[in-house]
C-alpha cells in the first residue's frame, strides 16, 4: 500500500474509534504521519534485520556450496585416477594372462617332450638290462665252464703229480 492510503486508513480508524468511545482525540495529520513513519521505520529495521540474516545465511550456504563443489572436484579427480589405474591393471592383467598362457604352453610342450624322453630312456634302460642279463648269464656259463675246465685241469694235474710221485717213489724203490 502506498503511504497516503495507509494514512487515510489510520485516520479513518481513529475517527471510528473516537465516535465509538465518544472520546475526542486530537488527531492531526502530523501525528498520523509520525505514527506511520514510526511503523515504517520499524518495518524497515525489521526488514533490514531479516535481509541481513538472509544475506548471512546465503553467504554461509555459498561457502558450504563452494566447499562441496571443491570436494566434488577432488572426488572426480580421484575417480578419474582410480579409473586410469583400473585400466592399467586390466592391461597388465591381460598382458600377464598372455604371458601365463605362453609359459603354460611351453611348459606343456616341455612336459610332453620330457615324457617322450623318459619313455625312450626307460625303453633303452630295459633293453640294456635285458642285454646285460643275457651277457651276465652267458658270462656265468662261461665262468662255470672255465671253473669246470679248471677243476678238470686240477684233477689232471693232481693225477699227473700222483703219477709222477708214484713213478718217483717206484724209481726210488727200485734203486
Describe the fold and architecture:
The chain is built from two helices and no strands. It has one domain. Helices cover 94% and strands 0% of the residues. With 175 residues, the chain is mostly helical. The chain has helices at 3-21, 29-174.
Reading the helices and strands in chain order gives HH
The helix/strand class is mainly alpha
Outline, from the CA principal axes?
rod-shaped
Total number of domains: 1
Number of helices: 2
Distance between the termini: 189 Å
Q: Radius of gyration, Cα only, in angstroms?
A: 67 Å
Give the tally of β-strands: 0
Q: Roughly what is the average pLDDT, rounded to an integer?
A: 86
- The assembly state of the depicted protein chains is single chain
The largest sheet is:
none
Proportion of residues in helical segments? over 70%
Strand content: under 5%
The low-confidence runs, each spanning 5 or more residues with pLDDT under 50, are none
Amino acid at each position: 500500500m502506498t503511504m497516503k492510503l495507509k494514512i487515510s486508513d489510520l485516520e479513518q480508524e481513529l475517527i471510528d474509534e473516537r465516535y465509538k468511545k465518544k472520546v475526542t482525540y486530537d488527531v492531526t495529520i502530523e501525528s498520523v504521519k509520525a505514527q506511520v513513519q514510526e511503523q515504517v521505520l520499524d518495518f524497515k529495521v525489521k526488514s533490514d534485520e531479516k535481509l541481513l540474516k538472509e544475506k548471512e545465511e546465503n553467504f554461509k550456504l555459498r561457502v558450504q556450496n563452494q566447499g562441496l563443489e571443491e570436494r566434488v572436484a577432488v572426488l572426480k579427480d580421484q575417480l578419474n585416477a582410480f579409473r586410469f589405474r583400473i585400466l592399467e591393471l586390466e592391461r597388465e592383467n591381460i598382458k600377464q594372462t598372455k604371458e601365463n598362457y605362453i609359459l603354460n604352453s611351453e611348459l606343456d610342450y616341455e612336459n610332453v617332450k620330457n615324457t617322450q624322453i623318459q619313455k625312450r630312456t626307460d625303453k633303452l634302460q630295459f633293453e640294456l638290462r635285458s642285454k646285460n642279463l643275457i651277457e651276465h648269464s652267458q658270462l656265468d656259463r662261461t665262468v662255470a665252464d672255465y671253473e669246470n675246465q679248471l677243476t678238470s685241469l686240477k684233477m689232471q694235474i693232481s693225477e699227473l703229480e700222483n703219477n709222477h710221485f708214484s713213478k718217483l717213489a717206484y724209481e726210488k724203490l727200485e734203486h
